[in-house]
Amino acid sequence: MDLLxxxxxxxxxxxxxxxxxxxxxxxxxxxQARLFQRVAPHGSRLAELAEAAQVTRQTAGFLVDQLERAGxxxxxxxxxxxxxxxxxxxxxxxxxxxxxxxxxxxxxxxxTAHLGQRRMA
Length: 121
What we know:
By secondary structure, this protein is an alpha+beta fold. The protein has one domain (2-120): Winged helix-like DNA-binding domain superfamily/Winged helix DNA-binding domain (Arc Repressor Mutant, subunit A). It has 6 helices and 2 strands. It is elongated. InterPro entries: HTH_MarR-typ, MarR/SlyA-like, WH-like_DNA-bd_sf, WH_DNA-bd_sf.
């Protein structure tokens, strides 16, 4: 079953990245995207992102550094802990998210038309 789901996942990922590149967001890698999509609306601590993305804290930190330099995320103070920092989605990241979600909705619509509503539920 995993292999059967891998093919549509790759197609979806390909279409999302193509749309992102066309919209001017051509500097995002799949690894960065996997971490980026796990940033909570209110922000996430680095350790939370690492755990959610199943990567080391060092890898998560490296990816966040890249995303921050590209303007997709920003680090801010954590209002609940003065020692901690939160990773939040920045304006450029919000704009990229709009493009990605539109493609996902389009693809889901195509799959629903092909498979039927009941099978997509």
